[in-house]
Amino acid sequence: MAGSELTNIKAPRVKAAKRLAKRAFRDRDRAFLAEGPQAVREALALPEVTVELFTTAEAAARHPEIVSAARAAGVPVHPASGEVMAELAQTVTPQGLLAVCRFVHVPLAEAVTADARLVAVLAHVRDPGNAGTVLRTADAAGADAVVFTDASVDPYNGKCVRASAGSLFHLPVVTGVPVAGTVAHLRESGLRVLAADGAGKHTLDDVDLAGPTAWIFGNEAWGLPEEVLALADEVVRVPIYGRAESLNLATAAAVCLYASARSRRAE
Amino acid sequence: MAGSELTNIKAPRVKAAKRLAKRAFRDRDRAFLAEGPQAVREALALPEVTVELFTTAEAAARHPEIVSAARAAGVPVHPASGEVMAELAQTVTPQGLLAVCRFVHVPLAEAVTADARLVAVLAHVRDPGNAGTVLRTADAAGADAVVFTDASVDPYNGKCVRASAGSLFHLPVVTGVPVAGTVAHLRESGLRVLAADGAGKHTLDDVDLAGPTAWIFGNEAWGLPEEVLALADEVVRVPIYGRAESLNLATAAAVCLYASARSRRAE
């Protein structure tokens, strides 16, 4: 390991990393925190993403391959006490590994090209856990990209990173773009733009999902605003066969994205 | 309203209700707490379920129809101060309405009969938020019943009740039954028993979902144990088309339940 164990929670290195829990500091440093062995492993699999790694002695012993991968990539590894890890980690039971990572998002034009077949757009998604879950689901469904518009939560929020379970590092992610410009670009790229909303005239059972499709998902509580619905080619609702009033956002997104993925495979 | 406003958080009535946040007291009193206008409305729609209603003056003014429905049903309505509501509620921003409800679960033989076409079984689901979300999704997908086996979380846990968004009151729920007996009963009732697990040999794309189906969902972290997989007719995984390692439990359940619901409609 590089250097002796960090035991002081006020050490400049610890304070600099801890600040990244706040969006203003993330935006300033263009860096964020990835916690736990899975996220750290995925970060290290990408070139030039991991800035530094903090690890407890216990975690280093449990995951020697992660520490080796960091060293091989020239990433500084800082041994840290349990107290320092608890200070840095945002989880109740920290897993002893935490990386400072450079932003991974890419411009919209790079993420979505004429080859794209399935894209998820998060417009007005405010809960970071939901956003991360949709990102993970989009990855699982084989989406080509996930777009966080400027009215959505920060994809680098700690809860979002954790809920994405590594998917933030798997597929192109775009952030901070206006929804109107996003829709225009999606359409120019040959994608049909579907807004998922409980107010949809069509249900998932009666839209043709075979072609390239972009799905827009809205707010947990109130769905999508009129101006976004108006931008879409179709507004589509997930059919409710029972007595539930609605589905939760991440659930509805899963049903839509997998319906598209399955239609695409059946082509 | 019945009586003057409760302002003392140590009043016997308040203490008796607050205790229901704990499972041991719920089991003893065979009662639980339902918070917020949606859950209270659904509880009042069922006969003999609501024992008593606590409401702040503000919430009573905002939802007069709920207070009227309670009175019409002979349910005692207790005006409560904001402080008392905060003491009783398990949410950070209480919505000012909270009902004490009688247990609503039914025996397995009553919930699942030969008419059943879609049933969800929660085996080893430990996170109450996930369990409630699966219950809500099963309701939306038109399931006939949801079974919580004895190794799963308590359906009356406050987080589960809230995540179910009223669905706990919509369809027959069974709790505390052993998984083996449940599977035997499902099979006798004519249902094909599918275990959802990442280790499945078959994917959702190559199983026939047209007939009556029961889905068994496992633990968030480790899926289903061998002995449960062995009980199922098939072990089925949701296909991962991208690079995600897995789906989260509630997402996987949504994809499976909606795949069944859609196949059934397409018959």
From TrEMBL, chains A, B:
<comment type="similarity">
    <text>Belongs to the class IV-like SAM-binding methyltransferase superfamily. RNA methyltransferase TrmH family.</text>
</comment>
<keyword id="KW-0808">Transferase</keyword>
<dbReference type="GO" id="GO:0008173">
    <property type="term" value="F:RNA methyltransferase activity"/>
</dbReference>
<dbReference type="Pfam" id="PF00588">
    <property type="entry name" value="SpoU_methylase"/>
</dbReference>
<keyword id="KW-0489">Methyltransferase</keyword>
<dbReference type="InterPro" id="IPR053888">
    <property type="entry name" value="MRM3-like_sub_bind"/>
</dbReference>
<dbReference type="Pfam" id="PF22435">
    <property type="entry name" value="MRM3-like_sub_bind"/>
</dbReference>
<dbReference type="GO" id="GO:0003723">
    <property type="term" value="F:RNA binding"/>
</dbReference>
<dbReference type="InterPro" id="IPR001537">
    <property type="entry name" value="SpoU_MeTrfase"/>
</dbReference>
<feature type="domain" description="RNA 2-O ribose methyltransferase substrate binding">
    <location>
        <begin position="33"/>
        <end position="107"/>
    </location>
</feature>
<dbReference type="InterPro" id="IPR029028">
    <property type="entry name" value="Alpha/beta_knot_MTases"/>
</dbReference>
<dbReference type="GO" id="GO:0005737">
    <property type="term" value="C:cytoplasm"/>
</dbReference>
<dbReference type="GO" id="GO:0006396">
    <property type="term" value="P:RNA processing"/>
</dbReference>
<dbReference type="InterPro" id="IPR029026">
    <property type="entry name" value="tRNA_m1G_MTases_N"/>
</dbReference>
<dbReference type="GO" id="GO:0032259">
    <property type="term" value="P:methylation"/>
</dbReference>
<dbReference type="InterPro" id="IPR029064">
    <property type="entry name" value="Ribosomal_eL30-like_sf"/>
</dbReference>
<protein>
    <submittedName>
        <fullName>RNA methyltransferase</fullName>
    </submittedName>
</protein>
<dbReference type="InterPro" id="IPR013123">
    <property type="entry name" value="SpoU_subst-bd"/>
</dbReference>
<dbReference type="InterPro" id="IPR051259">
    <property type="entry name" value="rRNA_Methyltransferase"/>
</dbReference>
